[in-house]
Amino acid sequence: MQPRDLSMHEPYVPGRGTKEVARELDVDPDSLIKLSSNENPHGPSPAAVDAITDTAETVNTYPKSSHTDLTARVADHWGLSPEQIWVSPGADGAIDYLSRAFLTPDDTMLISEPGFSYYPMSARYHHGNINTYPISKAQDFQQRASDILAQYNDERLLYVTTPHNPSGSELPISEITTLAEGVNDHTLVVIDEAYGEYSDNPSAIELIEEHDNIAVLRTFSKAYGLAGLRIGYAAVPESWADAYARINTPFAANKTGCQAALAAIDDQSHVEHSIETARWSREYYRKELDVRTWPSGGNFVLCEVGDGAAVAEAAKQEGVIIRDTTSFGLPECVRVSSGTRKQTKAAVDVLSEVIADIETTTAAESGVETEVGRP
Ligand SMILES: *Cc1c(COP(=O)(O)O)cnc(C)c1O
């Protein structure tokens, strides 16, 4: 017995977890600073924690009204109708819902390289193919509609990540309009705004009313601090919003998650505080780390450190877990998530030391003298 040919399906590589690393290093998990998965370092809103506790005693029933209530609340937040909010198990779930709704076998999805690995995974689950457009380091990861359209070849789904993971670059809203107007009628442009809250740019959700070929992904995993509960959604145009009823997995967005998300969206002060810290932190990394970095609209910064794997490993030994971006095709970089002020300062101290050490060692081994800390 064998499953179908899965050789094209690459397993998802998550950032390392605190417990996992604590066990490996044989240290207390609380002594570690985890900056590898772009999570909210302040934790969830206290109101969400209360909602989680309160929901515990009623998880024997299916999440019908919780789902309806969350959908209505999110729709209200954006000024859309409830049908236009496709609540899903994480934004990853919404990626699958769009694949289900749009892809027929051998349809193609156009995605960025480097990019978020779940897009191609979802395409392949749905018997689709992948084309890519570059977001290149040589051009500072700049995103432009004309560059994307130059690579566009009538694909069924076109994904844009803004702010982009792992580079932090953004596609301004005027460029998103150009993109939506530049593709053929049957192409859906999906704007992944998993990090939208941290950006200064407005959400592409405002374009949905005018353009029925734009869908926008949002999540409660990042700024709302609920990654462990797996709640996200797609905001979609009214004209085809009713497809949701035919493609969603019944009750896939769990009750505890829906209730926590409802509480979290009503605690905007927690979100605002989280955004403020993240913006401070990303600027602090850029200013204090003596390596090449790029402007980021998200809660993370991409840093060019030479040997990303070696730097991530050495930082881990010092208790700071960061993401080596080899799996994104950027082995010379690491991605560091925004932390609290204290965590950010500690991370800068550790990273500066580790990067200098590795440069000195590499220089000594190659017999070349380099200035310590030089990019
Ligand atoms: C984190 C992330 C998501 C979604 O995460 P969920 O936890 O599934 O909501 C989507 N896209 C990008 C680019 C991300 O980094």
TrEMBL record:
The modification N6-(pyridoxal phosphate)lysine is found at K222. InterPro entries: Aminotrans_II_pyridoxalP_BS (IPR001917), Aminotransferase_I/II_large (IPR004839), HisP_aminotrans (IPR005861), HistidinolP_aminotransfase (IPR050106), PyrdxlP-dep_Trfase (IPR015424), PyrdxlP-dep_Trfase_major (IPR015421), PyrdxlP-dep_Trfase_small (IPR015422). It is an enzyme of class 2 (transferase). Residues 32-351 form the Aminotransferase class I/classII large domain. One of its GO terms (biological process) is L-histidine biosynthetic process. Keywords: Amino-acid biosynthesis, Aminotransferase, Histidine biosynthesis, Pyridoxal phosphate, Transferase. The keyword Nucleus does not apply. CDD domains: AAT_like. Pfam families: Aminotran_1_2. Its EC number is 2.6.1.9. The keyword Amino-acid biosynthesis applies. Belongs to the class-II pyridoxal-phosphate-dependent aminotransferase family. Histidinol-phosphate aminotransferase subfamily. This is Histidinol-phosphate aminotransferase. It comes from Haloquadratum walsbyi J07HQW2.
